[in-house]
Design a protein that fits this description.
Layout (H helix, E strand, L loop, with lengths): L4 H13 L6 E4 L4 H9 L4 E4 L4 H14 L25 E6 L7 H15 L4 E5 L7 H4 L8 H6 L6 H7 L1 E3 L4 E4 L13 H11 L5 E5 L6 H9 L2 E7 L2 H16 L7 E6 L9 H8 L3 E5 L4 H8 L3 H4 L4 H11 L22
Parallel strand pairs: 1-2, 3-7, 3-8, 4-6, 4-7, 8-9, 9-10
Antiparallel strand pairs: 5-6
Helix pairs in contact: 4-14, 8-9
């Protein structure tokens, strides 16, 4: 058993320098505290001694399958450091919501998050709050080892370092992602209070926390909306969408969410549907913060698993998302967008 703190520190440093090497802890006294410390430093599994040979072989084989190959690490720059932000300033939480499915909510969430991650000095985290059928990991071409369900499963002992280690990293932007559960049934086991607590932990080290929500008012969604500082309300430019947005705004008013915290995003705003944008805004009583045009680059980017702000940066869609992201920066901006091929250094 390597229960001394200096040994855990060594394991943590080794993991940063050698991301294609995994560590397994073998101990004769397995406790919750020891397991907690092991997970914090990136140890992949903990086995009780005396060792069962077949268990050890199975554990090593399972972990080896998930390790990155040497070829995939070309250009890798170590930089996922332990959380070290003692400023006391909490990150801004931005909920991305829609009152109707198919409005482009997840596309908006992933593109705004990617744009923020490239330009913000502090970490940017994207949480897939669509707990039954979340698509964020697919849309960013990620293969996360942990999900929201894993984090919630340890919510009583969860801290910033543990949560940081659970997140997948989008290499092109440095965006941190906590993906939706792999099984839809896990959604029934997650409460709104647990999600609010999860967000509370994330915002202690992230500059921005974007939460992609399903198009429904349930316990989880209501708790996330109440925990958010700002909200992106995404709507397509058609009568059913506008009608649902009108009803949704009335519901949000009952939750005491002020209109000034709601940013209306009109998606496919140049569609030939014979709806006047100014008239739509007057009907809703909200001026749109962003007009995202219709463009073939959007479905292409989704199929490629690359946000439009990366795959088609000169398109009108990308410019709209970049401008939308700019409204949340307020001085916390890097000199240039981060576009290297390795992980962005967040901490330290």
């Amino acid at each position: 058993s390597c229960a001394r703190q200096e040994d855990f520190d060594t394991v943590a440093q080794w993991g940063k320098r050698h991301p294609n090497v995994a560590t397994v802890l073998v101990t004769s006294e397995l406790t919750t505290q020891l397991l907690h410390r092991a997970l914090r430093v990136g140890i992949k599994d903990v086995i009780s001694a005396p060792i069962d040979q077949q268990q050890l072989i199975d554990t090593v084989d399972r972990i080896a399958e998930d390790l990155p190959s040497s070829d995939s690490l070309v250009g890798y720059t170590p930089g996922i450091e332990p959380v070290d932000d003692d400023s006391g300033e909490l990150g801004r939480v931005i909920a991305v919501f829609s009152t109707k499915g198919g409005s482009g909510k997840s596309v908006t969430a992933s593109n705004v998050a990617a744009a923020l991650a490239r330009r913000s000095k502090k970490p940017v985290v994207l949480i897939d709050g669509h707990l039954q059928f979340g698509d964020i990991a697919v849309m960013l071409k990620l293969h996360p080892e942990s999900t929201v369900a894993d984090a919630i499963g340890q919510i009583d002992v969860l801290d910033a370092d543990m949560l940081n280690n659970m997140m997948a990293v989008h290499e092109q932007t440095g965006l941190r992602v906590l993906a939706a559960p792999v099984e839809p049934t896990f959604a029934d086991q997650i409460t709104g209070q647990q999600m609010a607590r999860l967000i509370e932990i994330v915002r202690t080290f992230a500059g921005h926390v974007i939460v992609d929500l399903p198009a429904i008012f349930n316990d989880v969604v209501l708790n996330v909306l109440e925990a958010s500082d700002q909200m992106l309300l995404v709507a397509g430019l058609d009568i059913p969408n506008i009608k649902n947005v009108k009803i949704g705004l009335a519901t949000l008013a009952l939750l005491n969410i002020p209109n000034e915290n709601i940013h209306l995003v009109l998606n496919r705003s140049d569609s030939k549907v014979k709806l006047d944008l100014a008239e739509v805004e007057r009907t809703l009583g909200v001026t749109a913060t962003a007009h995202v045009p219709s463009d073939i680059v959007v479905p292409i980017s989704v199929n490629k698993g690359s946000p439009v702000v990366l795959s088609a940066p000169k398109s009108g869609v990308a410019r709209a998302f970049e401008q939308l992201a700019s409204t949340f920066l307020e001085g916390d901006v890097a000199a240039e967008p981060v576009s290297n091929g390795g992980f962005r250094k967040f901490f330290g």
